[in-house]
Amino acid sequence: MNRHFLVGLLLPLTLLAGCGNAADSKGAENNAAAGPPVAVVNGKNISKSEFDLYVDNVERQSKREITEAEKSQLLDQFISMQLAADAASKAGIEKEPKVQDQLALARLNVLVDSGLQQWLEKNPVTDDELRPEYDAQVAQMPKEYHARHILVDDEAKAEAITKQLKAGGDFAKAAEKNSKDPSGKDGGDLGWFTLDSMVKPFSDAVAALQPGQMTDKPVQSQFGWHIIKLEESRVSAPPPFEEVKDRVKVLVQRKKLQDYLDGLRKDAKVEKKI
Fold it and tell me: How many CA atoms lie less than 13 Å away from 200 in the CB half-sphere?
């Protein structure tokens, strides 16, 4: 799982592509012992592990793999960043309140990111947790409806058409003759749709019908007066479990992380001042 996703999931923090490491000269010195240097800047080593992390961040943001030729250019950029950070530190910029807040936020970002990743590694999602979540998502899939309608501007005309249809009139022919909606030429056929794709008065009326039924009275919307006939309804066909397994895993991870954070919040003493 992408580690940056974890922070984006929970906190509105921005992870700078390597800038947090470069801006903190003390952190750079500590990281120097993590591997052989790729450069030495004013006597300070830039370790391979630190530079690799910078490259990983750039690849993640650009969503493509960095070539070896581009790594050389990135190293030049990283060296420039190190020089700029050293200059800022010498100028005392890191002591400014706003900068201290930004550094603290960057530190929080990294700790949250790494901490949540580690927690997930120790509490991985199991296959037994995936199927129930999949079934729950399938159960929430919207129902689909296939209906016809006749749309007119005048309520009296809509009532007259309704009366004719109740007496045995042909709905499709009545739609072709009277409906101002483009679907009229197709006998008022709207095809398959979900309720959320229609205006509320129309969708409420459809939801109240059984297949084969027609609205007892015309339904008004901002478009005019509708006479509606529900042809049939169905539950949307769910995608195969294996096809969406990875997406289901993300949903379960979200819930596990939220439960973990809720537990931390429950055990903590929090006093909000604003």
Answer: 0
pLDDT in tens, 175-233: 999 999 999 999 999 999 999 999 999 999 999 999 999 999 999 999 999 999 999 99
Which SS3 state, helix, strand or coil, does residue 12 take?
coil
| E strand intervals along the chain | 37-41, 44-47, 143-152, 189-194, 219-221, 224-235
Mean predicted lDDT score pLDDT of the chain: 88
Cα distance between residue 22 and residue 112, in whole Å: 19
Question: Taking the CA of residue 16 as centre, how many other CA atoms within 13 Å lie in the half-sphere pointing to its CB?
Answer: 15
Q: Model confidence at 247, in pLDDT bands (50, 70, 90)?
A: very high
Amino acid at 167: A
> Percent of the chain having pLDDT more than 90?
81
- Virtual torsion, Cα 255, 259, 264, 268, nearest 10 deg: 120
pLDDT at 19 over 80: no
Burial (Cβ within 10 Å: 0-12, 13-18, ≥19) of residue 176 = middle
The answer to whether the CB of 46 falls within 8 A of the CB of 78 is yes
DSSP letters along 188-235, please? TEEEEEEGGGS-HHHHHHHHTPPTT-B-SS-EEETTEEEEEEEEEEEE
Report how far apart, in Å, the C-alpha atoms of 169 and of each of 42, 193, 225 are. Answer: 91, 25, 18
Handedness of CA 124, 128, 134, 137 (dihedral sign): negative
3-state secondary structure of 156: helix
Could you give all domains of the chain from N- to C-terminal order, each with its CATH number? 3-115 (no CATH), 127-138+240-267 (no CATH), 142-235 (3.10.50.40)
